[in-house]
Amino acid sequence: MALITLLLLAVVSKRSDTVCANSDNAQLFGPLCKLLQLSDGIPTARKAASIDTNLLSGMQKLNMSQADDAWRVQFVKDGKGKQTWEGLTSEQKVNYKMLESGWEQWAETKSALAANTTFQEKLAKAGFTTLTQPQKVYARSLLERTVNEAEEINKLLEEAERSCIGKVRTQIKAELNSAVYGDSEGPGDYGKSGAPATDRQTVTKCNDSGKVGGSAELAYTILCLCLPVSGQEAAQPCAKDVTLTQHWGAATSRLDQIWKEVRSYCPATPTKHTTAAEIRTAISDATAMITLKTNVGYLGKHYSGNCGGSSASGLCVKYNGIVSNTQNKFSELAWVKNFLTAADKIQAAAAAAHKTEILVQKLKELNSTAWGIPRLIEGTAKMTAAVQATNPFKAEKSASGTTKWDCAKHKANVTCTADNNCQWGEDATDKSKGECKPKAGSETTAAGTGAEGAAPKEGAASTGCASHGTDKTACENDKTGDKQKCAWRKGKDGEDDTETEKCRNGSFLI
Length: 510
Prior knowledge:
This protein is mainly α. It has 4 domains: 19-46 and 169-345, no CATH class; 53-162, no CATH class; 392-446, no CATH class; 465-510, no CATH class. It has 17 helices and 17 strands. The protein has helices at residues 2-18, 26-40, 53-66, 69-72, 90-95, 100-115, 119-126, 133-162, 165-181, 218-226, 255-263, 276-288, 334-371, 373-389, 404-408, 413-418, 472-476, and strands at residues 42-43, 76-77, 81-82, 211-212, 215-216, 273-274, 291-293, 296-300, 316-324, 397-398, 422-426, 434-438, 443-444, 479-480, 483-484, 486-489, 502-505. A hairpin with a 2-residue loop joins strand 14 (479-480) and strand 15 (483-484). Helix 3 (53-66) packs parallel to helix 13 and helix 12 (276-288) packs antiparallel against helix 13 (334-371). VSG forms a coat on the surface of the parasite. The trypanosome evades the immune response of the host by expressing a series of antigenically distinct VSGs from an estimated 1000 VSG genes.
């Protein structure tokens, strides 16, 4: 009796290891179902900032408006129309060869400027119409640099915009659809009532990484895990207490019906937001479900060395040559690669949106800079005038243009005297020290500090004793206390015009 009981236990134990039990693959089906639903959904990333194309075109028109006539007239045909590059003569094309790459844009800008009847008002409001000629030249150079930078920013914007989600969503949907069905659009064989491709008609490819026509696809992989062979429909491997009516035997003609039933385990979610993070998480979760048996990777429940869809072998995918104890090339399978490529594009779209936002802001700043150039020039002029007004050396400039400041930069006798407009003055108490000043007689001094007794130049204001002119009384009364400052006399040695009596320095009375 004990022997019979032992034999029965052995049979039951062996049976429990060979029969595909209820929901054996239910846990694995979770991340695979999630991938299916992500393929149904809407690839989603941060929306790119809107680009105001009028910003760049407005700056280009502004730049053109400030160009000289010789530049602008090149882009006008017969005095009024747009001169296209193709409309130029052969000789003109040779002469303008260096302008060819930008010609059409310049011609279009000149044409748009001529057609804009309110642009002159904008120029006046910004202050461009009141600039002096030197200021216009300066403004032109500032504008050229600003517009060139704006055009480079615009190129980067165009590049970033091509990667934004609105531009690549269709590409991403094609990647996701290819991952599931092996076709970029539609369910392919999984939605047809006729016979599918040979590899999709049997369970055989479950032993070859789920490859159909040499390329693995998610839909077939899911069938390997959830669809039993004929006679074992009650196995319920992917959903507890859900019994299938379909089996592999029907795949030769009605794969669409099989897929419809298996897909019912995982309801479609066409409005789901598909993100890069969710895709990568689902792939990672599926990868973690792979187990090794005799150093070969398997996805799903397996009992023997093969994945035949039966209780004797198991419902699984065998990754011989793909996953082992020494390698893992699961991410190189076509459907996995498609999903990861889609995730990369969604992530790139998010990065492009962020880049676009930064570039749009930069373009706005450049636009403000361009239109604010007159205010900048005006502010610079005011600042220059203010600095000049407070310059302590402004009245100490020699006829040669040398100022006290120019000479003061010399700190040694040798460099001071090397400057023909300067002279070295030694310190009376310390001959090792001194100061470099403009040469006497060449420096234009401030009022009241000129050399007394010297005749003023014609048209120049007289200073010191010479300021009394022909007023002898005023000259002789010019004294400080008892000290005579001026005297009416003839010149002494070293003075000018020695035979003429006039008001001279009183120090020569000694």
